[in-house]
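re: ur question from earlier - yeah i can do the single chain one, its not a big deal. heres the input i used so u can compare w yours
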Amino acid sequence: MSHIVSIKTQVRDPAAISAACRRLNVPEPQQGTAELFEGPVTGLLLMLPEWRYPAVIDIAKGEVRFDTFEGHWGDRAHLDRFLQAYAVERAKLEARRRGCLVQEQTLADGSIQLRIAEAA
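and the output i got, formated as tokens:
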């Protein structure tokens, strides 16, 4: 039986964050404080390609805070790719933890399809 699932992503899992960074070939975030327009923000500092300032991940709240100055300091598409990679890696980790097999396929529109099945 097939099911379509949509996932609203809260970034809370350090292992999935690390896997998403490896997947996208970006440095793993380090704990620290960044100065954003709204003021200092503390969390995991994620430097995305061509971003002037890091995105800040608050794993306790599951939130990512950032300031791209309406695209002048970074392309939001890089964050969207990170969030997609995080969601995929988090789903794969959870499926494998439950003993399931996972197959992944990137579709023509850039979305990623996971097929998760119970191990025989």
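The radius of gyration is 16 Å. not sure if urs matches, ping me
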